[in-house]
Amino acid sequence: MQYVVVIEKSDNGYSAYVPDLPGCVVAAATKGETEKLIRDAIQLHLEAMRDDDEAIPEPTSSTVFVEA
């Protein structure tokens, strides 16, 4: 499965979240570190859901770039 990840720049670094996995959020000083952490967080989040016998949500979010 492929989930959309939103990465946002902040005053202190970067944060990332997965719209289809509420609560799956990370923050780090660099974009590269944030990308690594969110990959790990997704795996841990899904493992925890499986351990708790929760249904794994299908990815439904999508992205589009709009020129302004």
Which structural traits does this protein have?
68 residues; 3-stranded antiparallel β-sheet; 1 helix; 3 strands
Give the class from helix and strand content and strand pairing: alpha+beta
Largest sheet report: 3 strands, antiparallel
Order of helices and strands: EEEH
How many E-type strands? 3
Shape-level CATH architecture:
2-Layer Sandwich
Cα gyration radius (Å): 13 Å
Low-confidence stretches: none
CATH fold type: Double Stranded RNA Binding Domain
Helix fraction bin: 25-40%
Separation of termini?
31 Å
Number of domains: 1
Secondary-structure blueprint of this entry?
Blueprint (H helix, E strand, L loop, with lengths): L5 E5 L2 E5 L7 E4 L2 H21 L17
Condensed summary:
By secondary structure, the chain is α+β, with helices and mostly antiparallel strands. 31% of the residues lie in helices and 21% in strands. It has a three-stranded antiparallel beta sheet with strand order 1-2-3, with helices on one face.
Report what the structure shows.
The chain is of the alpha+beta class. It has one domain (1-68): Double Stranded RNA Binding Domain (2-Layer Sandwich). The chain is 31% helix and 21% strand. The chain has 1 helix and 3 strands; from the N terminus they run E-E-E-H. A 3-stranded antiparallel beta sheet has the order 1-2-3, covered by helices on one side. The longest helix has 21 residues, at 31-51. The termini are far apart. The model has no long low-confidence stretch (mean pLDDT 97).
